[in-house]
Structures are given as C-alpha cells and as structure tokens.
Amino acid sequence: xxxxxxxxxxxxxxxxxxxxxxxxxxxxxxxxxxxxxxxxxxxxxxxxxxxxxxxxxxxxxxxxxxxxxxxxxxxxxxxxxxxxxxxxxxxxxxxxxxxxxxxxxxxxxxxxxxxxxxxxxxxxxxxxxxxxxxxxxxxxxxxxxxxxxxxxxxxxxxxxxxxxxxxxxxxxxxxxxxxxxxxxxxxxxxxxxxxxxxxxxxxxxxxxxxxxxxxxxxxxxxxxxxxxxxxxxxxxxxxxxxxxxxxxxxxxxxxxxxxxxxxxxxxxxxxxxxxxxxxxxxxxxxxxxxxxxxxxxxxxxxxxxxxxxxxxxxxxxxxxxxxxxxxxxxxxxxxxxxx
Amino acid sequence: xxxxxxxxxxxxxxxxxxxxxxxxxxxxxxxxxxxxxxxxxxxxxxxxxxxxxxxxxxxxxxxxxxxxxxxxxxxxxxxxxxxxxxxxxxxxxxxxxxxxxxxxxxxxxxxxxxxxxxxxxxxxxxxxxxxxxxxxxxxxxxxxxxxxxxxxxxxxxxxxxxxxxxxxxxxxxxxxxxxxxxxxxxxxxxxxxxxxxxxxxxxxxxxxxxxxxxxxxxxxxxxxxxxxxxxxxxxxxxxxxxxxxxxxxxxxxxxxxxxxxxxxxxxxxxxxxxxxxxxxxxxxxxxxxxxxxxxxxxxxxxxxxxxxxxxxxxxxxxxxxxxxxxxxxxxxxxxxxxx
Lengths: 339, 339
What we know:
seven-stranded mixed beta sheet; alpha+beta; Phosphoribosyl-aminoimidazole Synthetase, Chain A, domain 2; four-stranded mixed beta sheet; 13 strands; homodimer
C-alpha cells in the first residue's frame, strides 16, 4: 500500500460529512477538498476564520500502544478544544501524518485511527479537506478551521478586575490516569478506566464556547493545567486572580471513587493535580459578576456544568484563598515541553 | 530556555511583515496572530482561502546537518509552492515544530532557521500567525494560507484534449544534488554548489501562478517529479499526454557544466532525472494553443521562463515522442513515501 492508496483508502471520502448544524452553511464554506495542491475555504460574509494547529508526538503526547481509535479522537479533540476556547464553530481540518513504515502497512491501526478521527469530526461537522502523508517517526499534526462573527472571538486579553473566574467540568482526572499508566502511583482498575477516558477521549467544549460568545470576557482551554492556562489569560489581560474554592470536591470526577479507596492520596495532592495536571480540555473563562445568570444559562444550553472558582484582581499574581480567607501564591506555570 | 521563551524569542514578532504588495490588504486579513488559542483570518469579500500543509521530517526530507537557514527557507518554500500552483497569493502560515531537546537549546540553529523562514515569508508578505512547539524527533509542519478570487483557482482537473503542456524553469538539478550528497554519483564541486541551491533553496513560482489565473486550464507544482505531478493532472482531468521535447537541454540548469565534465552522465540518464527527479518546485500547467501568447506574456510579467513540452490527448496515458515522432510510454509515477 503506497502513500496515495493510503490516503484514498483511509482518509478520502466522497460524501460531505454529516453536519451537526446545517444552518451554518458549512457545505458552502468548503469550496474544494482533498486532491489538489490546496483546499479552498470560503467563510460566510462577515465571518472570520479561526485557525489552530497542534502536533502530537508518539512517546510524548501518547503511548506507543494507545488504542488507535482513541488516538484519532484525541488528535482532533485537542484542536477542536482550541476552537471552543475562541468561541468558534468547526468547519474543516487538515491532517499531516508522519508514519513509520510498519504503521503505514498496518491497515487495522490506520482504519481504527481514521474511525476515531471521523467519528468526532462528523459529530461537529468538521470536514477533512487536505493534508500530507510521509514516512517518519509517528507524528500527527492537525490544523483546524472554525468560523465566528468578526469581533466576537473569546480572546485571552479581555479579563478585567472584578470579573469572576469560571471553569467547566472537572479537572485532574487525565493527570491521575497518566500517572497510573506511567507507574507513578496506583489506581484501582475501575477508577483508572474512568480517569483514562478523560485522558484518551477528551470532550472539546464547543457548545459551551459558542454559548459564551458575548458573555465571557476572556477564555482559554485547559490543556497545560489550570494555573498555567489561567496564567496565560492573566498575562495577556495584565491582571491577577485569587482562586477561592468553597468546595473543591468537584475538581476531580473520580474523586468519590478514590475516597472509597482511602489512604491513596491526600487532599493537598488531589488539589495540586487538579490545578496543574493538564490534558483536561475544559474551558477556563472570566465574566463580570453581572453575567452570572447568563453564564448559568449558557452552561444549561450547552449541557456543560460550570463552577465559579475565583475572581480577577487588578494586581498581577495568582493566589489561592483558604477557608479563612488567607491567600497563598500559586505558581502560574504551564506545562513546558523543554523545562 | 523553555517552550514559551523559545516562541517569544525566535518566532513572535511585534511588527506585521514587510508586505510585497500592500494592495491585497493582507494586514486587514490577519485579524489576530500568535498568542491565543487560535489565530483569526478574514479573507477580503469575494475571496476564497487556499490552504495547504506540508510536513518535513529529518533524515527523510532533509539531512540532519543541513544549513538551518536553508531549512527554514525550504520548509516554507514547499508550502508556498502549493499556493503558486493554485494561483493564490500568500497571506499567512502556521508552524508546528517538534524539536529534540538538544535542538531546542541550540540558539544558533533556531536563530538561523527563523531567519531563513522569515526572509522568504517577508518577501511574499506571509505572516506567521500561530503554531505549536513540542519535544520530539525533528519535524516541521507548516500550513499556509493564501487567497484568490472565488472560482479562479488553478485546479488539476481542467486539462482538455488539445491543450499544450508547459513547465517553468528547469528540472532535475535538485535530484542531481541529492544523489551527489547521498554518494550515488560524483559531481564536480562547482556543479554541486549550483545544483544544491536548487535542492536546498527552491523558489516558489508565486508570481507565475498569479499571472496564469484565467489563462492556464490546469496546474500543479513539481514536487514529486514531472511525470508524477503531470500524472496527477492527467488523472484528475481524465486525459492523457504526449511529451515532445524538441530540445531537452533546457531541462537541467547545470547541464552545460556537466557537458564540460563529459563522461559523467549519458543523455538518457539526464532525461530520466529531469522527468522523475522531484524537489524542483516548478509549475507544470496546461493551456489551450490559442493562449500561447498569453502564456508567454504571463511568463514575462512573472520574470519566470516557461517551455512548451507537449500536448494533452483524449486517450489516457503518458508518452514520450522521439525526434521521428514515435512515442514510447512513460511511467506516470510520483514519488511515493511508502513505495
């Protein structure tokens, strides 16, 4: 099986993808897809194109023996998560794939990878419009294209002193699974299964990102850990924040299961895991206190739970408040590939 | 030096790039660049976005010891060449970079790579608007964005029986250099220097692609070898072609030098190298015979020589005609990474 047959068999489809929302005219946007020097996209009048690219490297972002269907899902999910954090709706993506020769011959692996990728793509009306295939150490580079009305992007630089800080879903589960798979700590098998779903099949919060347009003052997705990604918002906006968890138990979905296996982790460890773990693909965002009911309504429309976890301060720095209102500094460091 | 400092120091620039052609309003098109979850692009009204992605892998597309400034040039050039083949003018690009830790620490290497990339980007008004940086085996994945008036793309599927086949510049020099560097054959040092320029610093034929809008019936860039890339046009258009070189001496720029070092190569070898060598980044295109003077005028406007090398036939297949008009079949095979 050569390069062109591989593309033809696994990645080229004659029909347009099933569209989650015909109203956005995505079919018209994709003027021309796979099979020429370039793909052609035409955003609707008045719309901007949101573009993001993420590269996944074997042994760095995923284990060599990861289920290929999950890998196809995750490679696209981490890119769609960037569109979600901008408030954009997906249109299309390109896939550049470096494959070791043994993978290029492994039809079961390629078929499962394509299945996982297309299942998520179809769910969000995101067409694969082009790419590149080459021999090399396993590397997946996806670039996604979304659209949004000009001027309505959820940027990182809009947080203002007095804004609430919110986060969607739960945080820390992916890091717990990663540690267990790496042998850093044990997890009971059923707890690992649940946490591993979060690590290997993250859910991009696209509906929430769309619902927050015009409501959130700033947003980012939590890929490198909450403190790091919130730190990007603080830096871009020139502000600080105090996190103030009245109840931190929401942070880790599998926490209830861990309590029954008590003695495994103390609460300080779980809090640190939730705050710095990464690979969660939730949204962290800010909004003025006057928008609290609008945020809750957006959360319900998007069927995505959100929790208020702090407030933006004029003075730079990121702090954690305890039950007595005393604050301690948090290191606002994101995961760094070269640190 | 961490991931974020690396981006800040080598790849983030505060000024918009020097624009080769202000009239195309590229500055307005780039609504928002590096530093958020997504970049934002807004093509001018009535314009389509042309998108292409190319991945370069160390040891596969370039030697580990290649001059990093040339590598930065080439990584972007091969992508811009796809825009040229579509008749699009460059707007922007993203860069995803997997770097081994020793490269991530090598400031001289990174600085030279960025210098080569930005020199070519600035020449064509192509802004770097985003990307990704990760640890891993050296891999460069660039996605380029260009724009063109809706409906005016130079596609591969427009060649018609009776059309002329044209090619720009010269073919085969890059392959001669590659073979010499790999030790497949010797080349005199001055000949190698000239040929190596073609391999390591290819010139994307953007001006010619733009000038051929509305004139060429089909076009592709010659990245995998003339017979392979012309083969893509033939397949997409459902036609065949006969190549008919009255004078094949134009094919290889360094041929004159090789003649003086006679005995190194026979003419059959040189013809094969020119027809199948690859890495040339010239344009192969078709146009009706009535457009011959328009093609010549486009060639002069773009300051890029073109040569008529054959004609499109209704019957499928690719043939080479000899001086007596007898034809022999040519294998229309492109370079295949997994063959």
